[in-house]
Amino acid sequence: MEEIYPPKLAEFAYVTDGACSEIEIQEKELVIMKCLDWDLTPVTVVAWLSLYMQVSGHSTSKHVSCTRDPFEKRQFSGLSFVQVTQLLDLVTIDINSVMYPYSILAASAMYHFIGSDKAMNASGYRFDQIAQCVSWMTPFAITLKESEYGVVSEVRIFPQVMMDDCHNIQTHSTDLQLLESAQTRLEEIIKETSSPLRTCNFLTPVKEGGRRRSKSESSTSTYYCSDTTSVKDSHS
């Protein structure tokens, strides 16, 4: 949520009824900013998806002017974007999603709905770099497609919203029952393959580029990941 017209500093000081002056608010703001290392605009998973789909759409477009900025206008299908975000909304409420960088989550979700070639070409990842996430995400994608309401089939149009922005309005909902069904499916797959799923033991998302694992962690815990053939079969 963003303020269209953010309140003035004087208004913040006024509502404290004299408890804080404008200077004190500014000093505390500086402390907070330094703690955050001035990192105020983290790239979200949806932002990565928008970038990938724009790159993919631009590379496949046959009617793009060389004199125009390729990012000036939307180059991808709004429906495809909504469908992929529907999957991302489902997987990101699972705690194990924090094991993967946002860029890999976006590429993996794109893999399931748009195709492996486009996902890898747009993201720059090789398949072996996203295979673990793709495999982990597979039960969620299947559950979503088989759910009562299924995948979004059209982008809703809103009178006061520009056509190019309608895909940014979320019209679908993701409930816990759907999440539980996907998690149950994942557990069944793990039991059938006798392949342990690495569970999450931390609550903060990893930074882009991943994190290093200790030798003991690498030897005692693994991600669930089927072979390349089974992952591709699940996509088709």
What does this structure look like?
This protein has 10 helices and no strands. With 236 residues, the protein is an all-alpha fold. Helix 4 packs across helix 7 and helix 7 crosses helix 8.
Considering the chains and any ligands shown, give keywords for the structure.
about 240 residues, mainly alpha, 10 helices, about 0% strand, disordered C terminus
Proportion of residues in extended strands:
under 5%
Task: Kindly name the structural category.
Answer: mainly alpha
Question: Count of DSSP helices?
Answer: 10
Could you say which overall geometry the principal axes of the C-alpha atoms support?
A: globular
The overall average pLDDT, rounded, is 76
Give the distance, in angstroms, between the N- and C-terminal Cα atoms: 37 Å
Strand and helix map with partners:
Elements (H helix, E strand, L loop, with lengths): L8 H7 L6 H14 L9 H16 L17 H14 L10 H12 L2 H8 L3 H20 L29 H18 L21 H6 L7 H8 L1
Helix pairs in contact: 3-4, 3-5, 3-6, 4-5, 4-7, 5-6, 5-7, 7-8, 7-10
Task: Kindly summarize this structure in a few lines.
The protein is an all-alpha fold. The chain has ten helices and no strands.
